[in-house]
Design goal:
This protein is an alpha/beta fold. The protein folds into two domains: about 10-120, Beta Barrel (Elongation Factor Tu (Ef-tu), domain 3), CATH 2.40.30; about 120-275, Nucleotide-binding domain of ferredoxin-NADP reductase (FNR) module (Rossmann fold, 3-Layer(aba) Sandwich), CATH 3.40.50. It contains seven helices and eleven strands. Strand 1 (about 20-30) and strand 2 (about 35-40) form a beta hairpin. Helix 4 packs parallel to helix 5 (about 210-225). The chain is globular, with a radius of gyration of 18 Å.
């Protein structure tokens, strides 16, 4: 038997390791009222060989006021074409922030830095069910995960998004029960999961949303759905009232301390403790 954390640990420790390169924007286009898709390509993406669903990377975006000081922003690989060294990823529409400002002004030909990959998902075996929960920030990752799930394992998917048209971004899959919230307060996602999720055999859980929401979902999943900690991957994709630059600065301090303490900051157990236990989770 394997778990999601065991598999992420294995592919991280024995895979190709991180890489960085420059990529060129090829195309930007709307795919729903809430998302735009971006295609980038570059010869350096030939280094991307360990390919897993919902792999995460950072783009080094030029600041509007200080272009010489890049601002890292995290995105999820939606698709990768190894023959063309081309990645597509989806960006949520929102007001303000360097990521949205860059999206508004970028176009074909712009060159930016890319650093990756952080592996976020792999399907453990054997499990009886997948529980997948996310808000709009996690919808691209959820879409990639659902697309890659083993065909014969049931999945319960709970999603919250701002726009009705965003529902079209989730691939159709047999043996999948999908529950949507549209335009609801972020706390409603916790209430939705509480209303539809219950212990049901061995469950592999993947949770990603606003930090406080994920903390509650994490506790519910462990305590009331009886999911083993090793079968759960939880990530705080954003934090209410705090911009990504401040979150990154805080994360760097915590990760540097963990490294000084001799911890492996790529280990899912270590990441989980740093994000949720040592940060008030």
């Amino acid at each position: 038997m394997t778990s999601i954390r065991q598999e992420i640990r294995r592919i991280t420790q024995h895979g190709q390791g991180p890489f960085s390169c420059e990529v060129e924007v090829e195309r930007v286009w709307p795919i729903s009222r809430g998302f735009r898709r971006v295609a980038v390509h570059g010869s350096g993406l030939a280094q991307y060989r360990d390919i897993w669903p919902a792999d995460a990377f950072k783009l080094m975006l030029p600041g509007a006021e200080q272009p010489e000081q890049p601002l890292p922003r995290a995105y999820t690989v939606r698709s990768f074409d190894p023959e063309r060294n081309r990645i597509e990823f989806d960006v949520a529409e929102h007001h303000g922030g360097p990521g949205m400002a860059w999206l508004e002004r970028t176009g074909p030909g712009e060159v930016v830095g890319l650093a990756g990959m952080r592996h976020e998902f792999t399907s453990a075996a054997p499990v009886d069910r997948h529980l997948i929960v996310g808000d709009a920030s996690a919808l691209p990752a959820v879409a990639a995960i659902v697309e890659a799930l083993p065909p014969d394992v049931p999945a319960l998917v709970c999603l919250s998004t701002a726009e009705e048209s965003d529902k079209a971004l989730l691939p159709e899959r047999e043996h999948t029960s999908v529950h949507w919230l549209t335009g609801q307060p972020r706390q409603a996602l916790v209430e939705l999961v509480r209303s539809v999720a219950a212990p049901q055999g061995r469950t592999q859980a993947w949770l990603a949303a606003e930090a406080a929401v994920v903390r509650e979902l994490r506790r519910f999943t462990l305590d009331e759905c009886a999911v083993d900690r090793q079968d759960m991957q939880a990530r705080a994709y954003w934090k209410a009232g705090v911009d990504s630059t401040a979150i990154d600065a805080d994360s760097i301090v915590r990760y540097q301390k963990a490294m000084a303490d001799g911890l492996d900051i790529t280990d899912p157990d270590v990441v989980d403790r740093m994000e949720f236990e040592t940060a008030g989770g």
